[in-house]
Amino acid sequence: MDFEQLYEANVDAVYGYLMFKLNDEQLAEDILQETFLAVHQGMQKNDEISSPKAWLLSIAHNKMVDCLRKRRIVESGLDFEVAADLNENHSNVFLQEALGQLADTERTIVYGLYVEGLTCRELAQILALPEGTVKSKAHYARKHLYHWLQEGSK
User: Fold this and answer.
1) In this structure, which CATH number among 1.10.4160.10, 1.10.10.1590, 1.10.1740.10, 3.60.21.10 belongs to the domain 1-83?
2) Which ranges of the chain does DSSP label H, i.e. alpha helix?
3) Which residues does 67 contact at the CB level (< 8 Å), separation at least 6?
4) Which pairs count as long-range contacts for 97-101, CB under 8 Å and 24+ apart, including other chains?
5) 80-111 pLDDT, tens per residue?
6) Which of 7-21, 33-47, 82-96, 137-151 has the lowest mean pLDDT?
7) Cα separation of 110 and 67, whole Å?
8) Rounded to whole angstroms, how far apart are CA atoms 17 and 40?
């Protein structure tokens, strides 16, 4: 797969992931550009990529973390919180409220599994966690959401 095909097939997924994590269009677009620049440079080095989408999302995740670290340093110690709410364009308030019940890592795992269609193995690579940890966090996230929904229906 050449760069243009890889870009066209995955740009929306990468941008959606960044917007999900950041809720900031400008920052997401900047990191998206950095991500695909790194991908373009890294394609010659990586002939065999088993899951292009997971590879791209892990690069985007790492670029996002680097960017937020730099911002934290620049803001001279002020704590920069990542807004984990969904983008305002996704006006599903119920979904936002439900995902707001979860911790950041659990939210990311649920998003990856059910929105991006990633496997636990791919999420483990992206988040640099053991696959078993991803599976257990997904289980507890579903359980937490189930209990939250049960309480809301009473």
Assistant:
1) 1.10.1740.10
2) 3-22, 25-43, 52-74, 93-99, 104-114, 120-127, 131-152
3) 27, 30, 31, 34
4) 98/145, 98/148, 98/149, 101/144, 101/145, 101/148
5) 333 333 344 444 566 677 778 888 889 888 88
6) 82-96
7) 23
8) 19
